[in-house]
Specification:
423 residues, alpha/beta, Rossmann fold, 5-stranded mixed sheet, 12 strands, 17% strand
């Protein structure tokens, strides 16, 4: 049965938006209608409901998901997210995005996504471990090092991946490190993981600046979302000479047109869990960040942060999507009409997926790479992907998002057609 949106009338429904992006790419590619129908829906969806014993002895039931979008280019990969607002639509959309990311980078994987509807801050470490191990057991029907490789996402990290790896390995009677990526290095993780998404976004921003004739070292940057990706990216941009003039976390924002001391801001948010009152800055309304005078605005938070109102107010010439689906369809149309360059999420935020692939390759070979090899390979692949997207955009006279989708969807469609239908 075709996958339907949880709320098809909602303007911010990320699944409907993801399907619309595919529809446009299919039209531009003159795609066969049958192929379009195949790519428009996930291959399979698993919804699970499972009990977990809490520390006080009570039992609570949780809902979890794992979705495979397309596996015709290889095993699936995608995050495990723990949030209270997780929906099946969000999981579907991110699984589809991961299919396009893999194809765009020419990584031989397909797309998956999963998670549990939960507020992890209300759980103890012991309860989180119990929830993770039970969830891993429930989705073990789908996952495997040659089938589906889970990765960290919002509110999950290396410890979560270690629990999943151990649970899966215990079920099979031997250690299987390649079942997940994003693990601690002590059990098969890779160097460079923490900064991978930020490093990939950094290379995309640098390439976008070059394409517009702007020196990165002279760029003024505003950063929306100051978690792991945003803080690390801010450090990289600052080291390259860029001036960070505004920062927003998930609640507040600050600015300094003369430049914010990034090292001090990162230290401040680590100690206070908020950018409020950061020394050397002035408070601004969080929504006013989009109207700050700058050259590059980075969206490194959650989905749907760049709304139509934000797009109207945006003063940057480049918007870098360092998060998944940060721009609403209405905002995207406004940005396109205004001539603002949007470096799309399937390219700009793909560094984490790429490092996951590096980790998986190293695990399967039991041979690990040096930092310089990882950094060099990431830069090479991201640069090639950006160049290919830019060339397609110029040749087809479309924006970067349209070009990225054409490249990625075309590769997945080609693999699907070559494999044919069984039976």
């Amino acid at each position: 049965m075709p996958a339907k949106p949880d709320r098809p009338d909602a303007p911010d429904n990320v699944w409907a938006a993801a399907q619309r992006d595919l529809d446009l790419a299919a039209e531009r590619l003159n795609m066969d209608e049958g192929m379009h129908r195949v790519l428009r829906v996930p291959k399979r969806e698993l919804e699970v409901h499972f009990p977990v014993t809490l520390d006080d002895g009570s039992v609570q039931a949780f809902t979890g998901y794992r979705v495979h979008h397309n596996l015709n280019r290889g095993p699936a990969t995608g995050g495990v997210r723990y949030t209270q607002d997780l929906t099946l639509d969000l999981v579907r959309a991110n699984a589809m995005l991961n299919t396009w990311k893999s194809a765009l980078l020419e990584v031989p994987w397909g797309g998956a996504m999963g998670g549990v509807v939960v507020n992890p801050r209300r759980l103890s470490v012991n309860e989180r471990q119990g929830l993770t191990r039970r969830y891993a057991t429930e989705i073990s029907l789908l996952i495997g090092p040659e089938r589906d490789i889970p990765t960290p996402d919002v509110n999950t990290g290396s410890q979560t991946m270690a629990w999943i790896m151990d649970t899966y390995s215990m079920h099979h009677g031997h250690t299987i490190p390649a079942i997940v990526t994003g693990k601690p290095m002590a059990i098969g993780g890779t160097r460079g993981r923490r900064e991978s998404t930020s490093r990939g976004a950094f290379h995309c921003i640098a390439a976008a600046c070059r394409a517009r004739g702007l020196a990165l070292g002279e760029a003024r940057v505003a950063i929306q979302g100051f978690g792991r990706v945003g803080t690390t990216l801010a450090e990289m941009l600052s080291d390259a000479g860029a001036r960070v003039v505004a920062i927003a976390d998930d609640r507040t924002a600050v600015a300094n047109p003369s430049g914010i001391d990034v090292a001090a801001a990162v230290d401040w948010i680590h100690r206070h869990d908020s950018i409020t009152d950061c020394p050397g800055t002035e408070p601004i309304e969080r929504t006013d960040l989009f109207g700050v005078d700058c050259d590059v605005l980075v969206s490194a938070g959650l989905q749907n942060q760049v709304t139509a109102e934000a797009a109207d107010a945006l003063r940057a010439g480049i918007l870098a999507e360092a998060a998944n689906s940060p721009t609403t369809p209405e905002a995207d149309a406004i940005l396109r009409d205004r001539g603002i360059v949007v470096v799309p999420d399937i390219l700009c935020s793909a560094g984490g997926l790429l490092l996951g692939y590096f980790e998986w390759v190293q695990d399967t070979q039991a041979f690990f790479w040096a930092d310089r090899e990882i950094a060099a390979e990431l830069e090479r692949i991201m640069a090639a992907a950006f160049a290919g997207v830019l060339a397609t955009a110029e040749r087809q006279r479309v924006d970067l998002r349209g070009a990225a989708m054409m490249v990625a969807v075309g590769r997945v469609a080609e693999a699907t057609a070559l494999r044919g239908l069984y039976p």
